[in-house]
Amino acid sequence: MSNKPSDSEFNFLEHSMEFLKSLSKLTLIYAVISSFGISVIYFIEEGMNSGTQLNNAFKAYEGYGSVNQFFIDYPQLYQFDDQVQICDHTTLTPENFVKQYVNKQRPCLFKGYAKIWPAFEKWTNQSYLNETSGQEIIYAEKQKDNRFAYFTAGAKRVYMTYSQFLDTFQDPNRTYHYYFSFEDPPGPLKEDIIDIPIVQDYFELEQLTFWHGFGTLTRPHTDAMENIICVFEGYKNFTIVPPHHTPFVYNGYEGLPRNYSPLEFVDPDYTKYPLFKNAKIMSAFVDQGDCLYMPSFWWHQVESSKGVTLALSHWYKVQHEFTQEIIAHYQDKFL
């Protein structure tokens, strides 16, 4: 599924701008964003690239060079919660989850959702992991510190059995840190997971990532897919910044890829990175048994429990599709 509007939808956008350009800037921007079904991330992605139809239209009518600047100047257009919302998986319907959170790109914490999985009872038992999947060959990350990233100097990936990993990654006398992050749970452990009920009829699963580590701390980054991550042992503490505050996180600085930030969200150095004072920051504590919906392109740094942490990410294609019903509403109202 593509989140890019069609040529006919762009034609409607241009007609709407012609009609509305005499109105206030706030009305214009709100109408444009609403007409795209609040596809906020599409605006952010396209607005970063010069020469796109969207960027050219915004430049022509409003003089802005970046859609990000729209959201900075008019934060009321973007529904931003002060805290990550708690979603009750027993009462929230799939339709309302998509409408209230996915379409609006709002993170959502499901307390206790992972407890319905067979994995919740089984994966905290290391003997069970060893007996069922210990002989599976895995591909583990190995480096001197716990700041795992593929571009870290000295980072390596090594083959070992899952049993060897279980014996090594939490050894107090280890000389290296090890982290298992791969697309699937090893071997028969795949039988302990389920399709997430609230999204199985709406989301298209792209891949899984099995996270097994000890006291890890990620570098701040974004991901290009929707993520629902469930924790089965330990916890993961997310420090989160919305995508329209990308100008404040110094992404791509100091030789990093554009989807990484050099600063520490958990302990920022405001002297070195003063713009980060302007960033909106939220946190989400994902405890054992919880699941977090993390929309695509949201900045996040993840601090795992000081001991063992085991989690699983479900990665889905970006979901914010163009909304035909809203387009029809604006056609009737303005054209």
TrEMBL record:
InterPro entries named among the record's database cross-references: Cupin_8 (IPR041667), JmjC_dom (IPR003347)
Keyword Kinase: no
All copies of domain JmjC, residue ranges: 185-333
Membrane-spanning segments: 26-44
Gene: Contig18139.g19283
Alphabetized Pfam families for the sequence: Cupin_8
Protein name: Jmjc domain-containing protein 7-like
PANTHER family: HYPOXIA-INDUCIBLE FACTOR 1 ALPHA INHIBITOR-RELATED, HYPOXIA-INDUCIBLE FACTOR 1-ALPHA INHIBITOR
Keywords annotated in UniProt: Membrane, Transmembrane, Transmembrane helix
Keyword field contains Membrane: yes
